[in-house]
UniProtKB/TrEMBL annotation:
<feature type="domain" description="Phosphoribosyltransferase">
    <location>
        <begin position="31"/>
        <end position="151"/>
    </location>
</feature>
<dbReference type="InterPro" id="IPR029057">
    <property type="entry name" value="PRTase-like"/>
</dbReference>
<comment type="pathway">
    <text>Purine metabolism; AMP biosynthesis via salvage pathway; AMP from adenine: step 1/1.</text>
</comment>
<dbReference type="GO" id="GO:0005737">
    <property type="term" value="C:cytoplasm"/>
</dbReference>
<dbReference type="InterPro" id="IPR050054">
    <property type="entry name" value="UPRTase/APRTase"/>
</dbReference>
<dbReference type="GO" id="GO:0006168">
    <property type="term" value="P:adenine salvage"/>
</dbReference>
<keyword id="KW-0963">Cytoplasm</keyword>
<dbReference type="Pfam" id="PF00156">
    <property type="entry name" value="Pribosyltran"/>
</dbReference>
<keyword id="KW-0660">Purine salvage</keyword>
<dbReference type="GO" id="GO:0006166">
    <property type="term" value="P:purine ribonucleoside salvage"/>
</dbReference>
<protein>
    <recommendedName>
        <fullName>Adenine phosphoribosyltransferase</fullName>
        <ecNumber>2.4.2.7</ecNumber>
    </recommendedName>
</protein>
<dbReference type="GO" id="GO:0002055">
    <property type="term" value="F:adenine binding"/>
</dbReference>
<comment type="function">
    <text>Catalyzes a salvage reaction resulting in the formation of AMP, that is energically less costly than de novo synthesis.</text>
</comment>
<keyword id="KW-0328">Glycosyltransferase</keyword>
<dbReference type="GO" id="GO:0016208">
    <property type="term" value="F:AMP binding"/>
</dbReference>
<dbReference type="GO" id="GO:0003999">
    <property type="term" value="F:adenine phosphoribosyltransferase activity"/>
</dbReference>
<dbReference type="GO" id="GO:0044209">
    <property type="term" value="P:AMP salvage"/>
</dbReference>
Amino acid sequence: MSDLSRLILDRIRDVPDYPKPGVLFKDITPLLADPAAFSAVTDELAGLHEVDKIVGIEARGFILAAPAAYKAGAGFVPMRKKGKLPSETLDESYDLEYGSATIEVHRDAFAPGDRVLIVDDVLATGGTACAAVELVRRAGAEVVAVAVLMELAFLKGRDRLAGVELHPLVIV
Ligand code: AMP
């Protein structure tokens, strides 16, 4: 295991039964509060691919994607929960490990053919990432890869991302 994977594992806190019984929540706030860990993760995400835009999925994806975009010299694009973006949007609905949701992106968020990296904190069932890939494509851009801090392998989210390059910084 790499030093970075070890550092990430060490700084992500397991919170049982949050937000509902049976879910083991992966809390990234200890990692964000550690400057060495946060900057190592930012550097890793920024160096994965040459891209035009980095998408962050609300809300924890924003925290990871925005500094990575800055570092990479790429633009940052927010993918938000329904009703939060002010201009014209595209939307996709999907099932979560706990509940269901709809995410949106601005219709004009990408230039045609933009190369895009999608970033989130946790890949669980893959519904969110799959919807994000669909939205980027519908908006006329190219998904280069999806990157997550942590993949929960037992939920088989990667099966829903067939044909999409996936970069989990750690797999549990
Ligand atoms: P999914 O669509 O099932 O892959 O769920 C991924 C989304 O839900 C990500 O945006 C995560 O932030 C959040 N999520 C799902 N399961 C967990 C978990 N066990 N711990 C932390 N976040 C989670």
